[in-house]
């Protein structure tokens, strides 16, 4: 062009051809890039679901990718404990076959109580989980409730549920009387009594269905 060895038309046609070749090269590069699958984060791969050389599409499941340094924990708590489930609180958990206990941080809770089970759904996150923890496993969650060293507790089997309240049978001076109680926290073995009993009361734990109030009884064992 400087020495006018070619015309402007020839130059424009040559430039167009070059641009077309560059566009074809970009298309090839995009096609090559589609043959590579990159994970959005680092983790551990599961079993491969396709064979080498197989044709795949965007909907083909190749394998599973698990983020090994973080797991989510989902559990439910009775509605009476829902006020204790605050974001940032910690819970401990253990798994079957694992001697080590782990600590998870509450991430969020459901905004309503489940109508059928009367429970609150809680989501927690477990950091530094490690590769030996497998997603989908069942965990036993231990919740640290309010601590009260002066609380009165009775065995679970001593509580007699009724339609509108709960009662226990108290032994005094050789006779039995029925006492309405208010319960608090409980586990698999014991129930906290918030109102109705006093320190030192003797509560019956066996033969409850055959005992009537004001009947005379004889204790065989006192715990």
Contiguous runs where pLDDT drops below 50 for at least 5 residues? none
**Percent of residues in β-strands:** 25-35%
Quaternary state of the chains: single chain
- Tell me the total number of β-strands: 13
Helix-strand sequence: HEEEEEEEEEEEEE
- What characteristic shape results from the CA principal axes? rod-shaped
CATH class of the largest domain: Mainly Beta
CATH superfamily of the largest domain: Efflux pump adaptor protein, beta barrel domain
What does this protein look like?
This protein is mainly beta and 223 residues long. It folds into three domains: 38 residues; 77 residues, Elongation Factor Tu (Ef-tu), domain 3 (Beta Barrel), CATH 2.40.30; 59 residues, conserved putative lor/sdh protein from methanococcus maripaludis s2 fold. 12% of the residues lie in helices and 33% in strands. It has one helix and 13 strands. Strands 8, 9, 10, 11, 12 and 13 form a six-stranded antiparallel β-sheet that branches. A five-stranded antiparallel β-sheet has the order 3-6-5-4-7, with no helix packed on it. A two-stranded antiparallel ribbon has the order 1-2. The longest helix has 26 residues. It is rod-shaped. The chain starts with 7 loop residues before the first helix and ends in a 20-residue tail after the last strand. The mean pLDDT is 86.
Descriptive tags:
single chain, about 220 residues, 1 helix, conserved putative lor/sdh protein from methanococcus maripaludis s2 fold, about 10% helix, Elongation Factor Tu (Ef-tu), domain 3, 3 domains, five-stranded antiparallel beta sheet, mainly beta
